[in-house]
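SEQUENCE-TO-STRUCTURE ENTRY
===========================
Question of interest: how does this chain fold, as expressed in C-alpha cells?
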Amino acid sequence: MRIIIAVTGASGALYAQRLLQVLTQSEQVREIAFIMSEQGRMLFVHELGVNLSLRRPDLSLLGINTNKIVPFHPKDLTAPPASGSARYDAMVIIPCSAHTLAKVAHGLADDLIGRAAQVMLKERRKLILVPRETPLSVITLRNMLAAAEAGAIIVDANPGFYHHPTTVQELVDFIVQRVCDLLGVTVELVPRWELPPKWFVRQA
C-alpha cells in the first residue's frame, strides 16, 4: 500500500506523529509520501519542539522510521502525488486545518497538498481528512459536507472514552486506530467496543 500523509496547521501534531509511527511499522504499507505545509512545520515546532525542514524533514527526530518515507516540498507541483498516474492508494490530511478543508471542498489546488487531495477525489481513491477544530462555524460545517459529498471521509479528531483512557497517548491512539481501520491497515492500539461490554450490568 502506498499512502500520502499531509500535515497542515491545525493543532494536533501528536496525531500525525503517531500515525506515521504506526504506518511505518506496518508490513501492509510499503511507501509513504510525506507533505508538510509551512503551518504544519510551525505546528511541530510549537507542540513537539522539533524544527523540520520542508524539503528534507528528518522525521527520525519524532521517533519515526524513515525507511518508507519519501518527503515532498508543499510547493512542488511536479511531484508524483500531483498526478493520478502515480497511483497512490490513499491520502490522509492529519491534522486538517479549516483552511485546507475549505480548499479541498472547493477544488483549490494551489499547492501539493491541495492538488494531491483533488487527485484522490477525481481518481475515486480514499481521502481522509482529520480536522481538529472546535467550535465549528457554519462555513466549516458546510465545507465538511461539501468535501464528504465529493468523496472525502471526515474523521473528526474527537476520541471516545469507552476504553477508559488514562493517558494522552491512549486518546491519540483512538483516533489513529480509526484512521488505520479506514485505510485497511490492521492495528490494535486501544480496546474495541464489545457487545455486551464486559463491564456492562443490565438493571432489572
The chain has one domain: 2-183. The longest helix spans residues 168-183. Residues 2-183 form a domain with the Rossmann fold fold (CATH 3.40.50.1950).
